[in-house]
Amino acid sequence: MKYVFLFLIGFLMSCNAQNAIYDNLKEAPIDGGLQMEDYWVWGSSVIKGDDGKYHMYASRWPKFLPFHPGWMVASEIVHATSNTPEGPYQFEDVALGSRGAQFWDGRSCHNPKIVKHKDTYILYYMGSTHPFEEVNNNNVDDFNLSSKWCIAARWRKRVGIATSKSPYGPWKRLDAPILEVKPDSYYSFLTSNPSPLIKEDGSVVLLFKGRSYKEDTIKHSDMSIGVATAPSFDGEYTVVGTKPLFSMEHLGEVEDPHLWSDNEGFHLVAKDQRGLITGGKGDGLLAHSKDGINWVVDENPRAYTKTVKWENGKTIKQGQLERPFVFVENGQPTHIFFATMDGPGGFGNGTKTWNMVIPLK
To answer: Which residue in 31, 32, 85, 275 has its CB near the most CB atoms, within 10 A?
Structure first.
């Protein structure tokens, strides 16, 4: 199946069409979202439960580990609640934690995306494992991207799901991922960063990040974004076509895609890794679709920048602003959530991370 992309970048960047996110950003509450002492917190996804509360699922890992790549070996998915979408969210429980090196997701669970179909909550996530001892305070000085832990944990990253009848769990996890790697493909090295959209008929469109092996070594390629489909959330997932939606060879490198549907149709927001689409490195981009598979970049594609206006009157360029998540209620986008970091930029230069939220007009 061919993908339809209409990217006339020069023309689109000059358009004045209203942007559904950028033109509707309000001030960010300083006490909104989720932060946890002694933990790095990252990447949230929110759903409204039958109890009327707002349920957030987010990644966390202990701060004795470096932020990057600590998540590869020690991330767990936690559940927090709030009476309002803005929060602050209060920790409830660990939804998905470590369960042993023998499981495909036994060491790390990351990148949660929560959806619901009928009476079932479905938590999509990335899982990984490694066969070595755990990283602790005694051996953490040996832990880095080129260490044995990260070499194994990175290429073992896969996409999976867990299900529950309640947002409080318990969660039923699968013994195998739903999206494996494929030799000689753009996802031969790993699959990660799932973003599902369940249609009215129960079928699923799933965007994911892939990397391929590079030159038959342990090195990996730049990021690509692909799309898979399934007849139901618990059905077989099949990658559509052989070429990615976004890659360095096609349009530009994109990360953190998030799908949602509202009264206007299907939409995508993602981080423009190198700024090749929006013109700003790390800025957000918007695209839309009629079927969730064929995507067109919006006429005015920039969804956000790292510069945030806070309700205390300050305007700050965040060190990092990633993992965009658009919350929809009653058919309308009402909030956009981000994982963010303080500091001048760069994963090694921050002292604090949290999940923040910006209301939309």
So the answer is: 32
Q: Give me the DSSP letters along 145-193.
A: TTSHHHHHHHHT-EEEEEEESSTT-PPEEPSS-SB---TTSTTSSEEEE
d(CA 132, CA 147): 11
Distance CA 12, CA 217 (A): 39
**Residue 114 half-sphere exposure toward CB, CA atoms < 13 A:** 30
Q: State mean pLDDT over 193-216.
A: 94
Q: What angle (nearest 5°) sits at the alpha carbon of residue 352, between those of residues 346 and 357? A: 95
Q: What is the helix (H) or strand (E) element at residue 286, kind and residue range? A: strand 284-289
Q: Which residues contact 166 (CB under 8 A, 6 or more apart)?
A: 121
Task: Please say whether the beta carbons of 95 and 172 come within 8 A.
Answer: no
pLDDT tens digits, one per residue of 345-355: 999 999 999 99
pTM summary value: 0.93
